[in-house]
Write a structure and sequence with these properties.
By secondary structure, the chain is an alpha+beta fold. The protein is 49% helix and 22% strand. The protein has 16 helices and 24 strands. Strands 1, 2, 3, 4, 5, 6 and 7 form a 7-stranded antiparallel β-sheet that branches. Strands 13, 14, 15, 16, 17, 18 and 19 form a 7-stranded antiparallel β-sheet that branches. The chain is flat and about 175 Å long. The relative contact order is 0.05.
């Protein structure tokens, strides 16, 4: 079962808006408060990091200032080779004295020179000379001594091997005089490099007491409990509020959940921070800022430790203020929503009542609503009033349209009046439909006029298709009448005289009378000739007064338009129609004349084909009589040919009988016209003791050697046989060591066409008596 809450608009707006607003407001306040808390924490962290960086920069400036002094001395001393030692040694001592006096923070200022570099007589790789400036009871002293004669110390050897600027690890005073307290110190060293070779170094020993004081004075007012400390590159405390932790590793009290240890992070030389337990076992945020010292790669770090509670105190305070402000805001928001929704919903209810009436179709002009709220509600009421007036105007307009008054004027309420545009479009569509209906009627009339005309002229063409002259008169007369023209003419193509083409005027009609002209126009001359040769319709208007008399071949008045249409089918021209009129020809009339011209051409083609058919029929009859006479003559020739064939058959039979008789008594060989054996009888094979396979296909001249003259005679002999000349030769054969002489007769055998188709060689032996 669905539950439906029946509330009016005012109640719904108040319920929904207050509920949604409270939810959104609470979420926004919560989100803002949470973000504000996080932002406050982040800002506090950024402040701690900035303070750490600021103090680290101050310490870095002091250390770099000391390193700059040492570097300047080492660079200045690199010119010692330009002068003898007797000059530069006292000069450098004076420089040391001046620098040492100007820098009271220096505990000691010293140098070290490799004897192998400054003394050409020194032939050992070890040994160095050192100058040292210091203070005893406030008085400055200096001393010079030779060292490392037994080898370099570990510290010196390390500095010498690296040959770069260095800050040495922390140490307690190694040069402490008696009665002086031990102090935490470090040394800054800069090598003396000449031609990339180590010649010595300049160094200064610093007491870190001043940096200890700086560390102890570092405080951040916003965060109580803040303290700072100074770490060397090795992770040893160089400064700390607890002096007993000096020169102790920082890792023993600083623990981090980070993946890398504090020492590893220091060696990277980048700022970082950790969360760790403080001195009182409270959670501390520690920011580390790097201190880059000269050109060394062993930075120190300044650490600033702030209790997390101090960082979060301000954020928690801001969060509580946000919650209190949010509760007050919810109350004020709810009250404002109630008042606003009431002012909105009351006029809307009145507007709703009017809309209900409009939904029922009421558009009474008395339906008015006055709202003076000065806002969108008033605009809604005014818009509704305007809509009612506009609907009344549209209703009146629709009523006029319904009465067929399509010209009734109507104005749009605005450019966005879609209903008004739809009504105007409806009126325009009705007007367009009415215009199209008129056009359709005109097109139907034109189409009906064309169809009736085509039917009419089809009847004329069918009725007179056997007489071109009568056909021409009927066509041109009816065409002039049908087109309401003033005159017309029909020209037909004549190709029968002198092998030239002419256009003969076979019919003319003008001013309701037939005209009997005899006119001939050469193919290609004038408008008519041009139309015929170009095979295209010519339509001319605005003709000169004497134009038609000059070019058209028609007499009479001067028309305003001239239409010349070729009579053609499939690009074959049979004539030309020429129509002149005082009126302009419409396109549908021109198309009608072109269709009629095509039908006329088809009829003319049919008439010409009929005439040609009759002529061919007469010629065919004449040829039939001639063929009958030829057949009689052929019959007589056939009888003679049959008698000849019977005689030839008889002779052939006699020849075959003779050949069969000779087959038993003679040696017979049969050749084709080219001289190759095609048949041989057994007598010949037995005489020469050969098999048939050895003889068949061999040539008559095989195994014969000829001289040029003999070859010529042989060719003549065989050519005579091929022409049908019988030859007789005497031949000699050696058979079983016995000489036999034969008479050989070569007889050509003809076919029915009188050509030699084979040659018979008949051989008979000559006896001693015959010899």
């Amino acid at each position: 079962m669905k539950f439906k809450l029946n509330l009016n608009l005012k109640s719904k707006m108040q319920l929904y808006l207050i509920t949604i607003s409270v939810i959104i407001y609470v979420a926004a306040i919560g989100y803002i408060s949470f973000n504000a808390k996080n932002s406050a924490y982040k800002n506090s962290v950024d402040l701690v990091n900035a303070e750490a960086g600021k103090y680290a920069h101050k310490i870095q400036s002091d250390l770099n200032e000391y390193m700059a002094v040492v570097r300047t001395l080492s660079k200045a001393f690199s010119v010692y080779k330009d002068m003898p030692r007797e000059q530069w040694d006292p000069l450098f001592i004076k420089m040391y004295d001046r620098v040492y006096r100007d820098n009271p923070d220096f505990y000691k200022l010293w140098d070290s020179w490799e004897l192998s570099k400054i003394d050409s007589s020194w032939d050992q790789s070890i040994g160095r000379i050192s100058n040292e400036f210091g203070r005893v009871d406030g008085a400055i002293y200096n001393k010079q001594e030779i060292r490392s004669l037994d080898g370099d110390s570990e510290v010196y050897a390390n500095i010498k091997s690296q040959a770069r600027e260095m800050i040495l690890p922390l140490y307690f005073d190694l040069f402490t005089e008696e009665n002086q307290d031990a102090e935490l110190m470090t040394s800054l060293v800069s090598p003396i490099m000449i031609d990339n070779q180590f010649h010595g170094m300049v160094g200064v020993d610093l007491i870190l007491k001043q940096f200890q004081q700086m560390v102890e004075n570092i405080k951040i007012e916003q965060f109580p409990g803040t303290y700072a400390f100074l770490l060397s590159y090795e992770g040893m405390y160089a400064g700390h509020p607890k002096t007993e932790w000096l020169n102790q590793p920082a890792t023993f009290n600083l623990k981090s959940d980070e993946e890398f240890s504090i020492t590893d992070r220091i060696k990277k030389g980048e700022s970082f921070s950790i969360i760790t337990k403080g001195q009182n076992n409270d959670t501390q945020f520690v920011a580390f800022a790097p201190i880059a010292i000269g050109r060394t790669n062993t930075p120190w770090f300044l650490g600033v430790s702030v209790p997390i509670n101090s960082i979060m105190a301000q954020a928690d305070r801001n969060f509580m203020i946000s919650i209190i402000v949010g509760i007050i805001g919810i109350f004020i928001l709810s009250l404002a929503i109630y008042i606003i929704t009431k002012n909105i919903s009351d006029p809307i209810q009145k507007i709703t009542e009017l809309l209900k009436k409009l939904s029922k179709g009421q558009t009474d002009i008395k339906m008015q609503l006055n709202v003076n709220s000065g806002d969108e509600i008033e605009e809604m009421a005014d818009s509704l009033k305007t809509s009612i007036l506009s609907l009344n105007e549209k209703t009146e307009f629709a009523n006029h349209i319904g009465k067929g008054e399509l010209d009734y004027d109507f104005k749009l309420s605005s450019d966005e009046d879609e209903l008004g545009k739809a009504l105007i479009n409806m009126r325009n569509s009705l007007q367009k439909a009415r215009e199209e209906e008129e056009k359709r009627k005109i097109e139907d009339q034109k189409r009906r006029w064309v169809n009736e005309g085509l039917a009419k002229f089809a009847d004329i063409l069918r009725a007179n298709n056997d007489n071109l002259e009568r056909l021409g008169h009927d066509i041109i007369k009816n065409l002039v009448y049908y087109l309401d023209a003033c005159q017309g003419g029909l020209f037909l193509l004549n190709e029968e005289e002198d092998n030239k083409k002419y256009l003969d005027l076979i019919s003319a009609f003008a001013y309701d009378r037939e005209k009997y002209f005899e006119k001939r126009i050469e193919y290609g001359d004038g408008i008519v000739g041009s139309c015929a040769i170009e095979k295209e319709t010519i339509y001319m208007t605005d003709l000169p007064q004497d134009y038609i008399e000059i070019t058209s071949g028609l007499g009479g008045s001067n028309p305003d338009s001239l239409l010349v249409v070729p009579l053609k089918i499939e690009d074959q021209v049979y004539g030309v129609i020429e129509i002149a009129s005082f009126n302009k020809f419409e396109n549908y009339q021109i198309e009608f004349v072109e269709k009629v011209a095509q039908n006329i051409a088809s009829t003319i083609q049919s008439v010409k084909v009929s005439i040609q058919t009759n002529e061919l029929l007469e010629k065919s009859q004449q040829q039939s009589e001639e063929m009958a006479a030829q057949e009689e003559e052929m019959r007589q020739n056939m009888e003679e040919l049959q008698a000849t064939q019977e005689e030839a058959a008889r002779k052939g039979t006699e020849m075959e009988s003779l050949i069969n008789a000779l087959e038993n008594s003679s040696c017979i060989v049969e050749y084709n016209p080219e001289g190759f054996i095609t048949k041989v009888n057994d007598n010949y094979l037995n005489l020469l003791n050969l098999s048939r396979a050895e003889v068949m296909g061999t040539h008559h001249s095989d195994k014969m050697d000829f001289t040029d003259k003999q070859k010529e005679e042989y060719n003549k002999f065989w050519n005579d046989l091929k022409r049908g000349v019988t030859k007789k030769e005497k031949s000699k054969f050696i058979v079983n060591d016995k000489e036999l002489i034969f008479i050989e007769v070569y007889t050509p055998i003809m076919n029915d066409e009188g050509k030699v188709e084979r040659i018979l060689k008949i051989s008979n032996e000559i006896s001693e008596f015959d010899k």
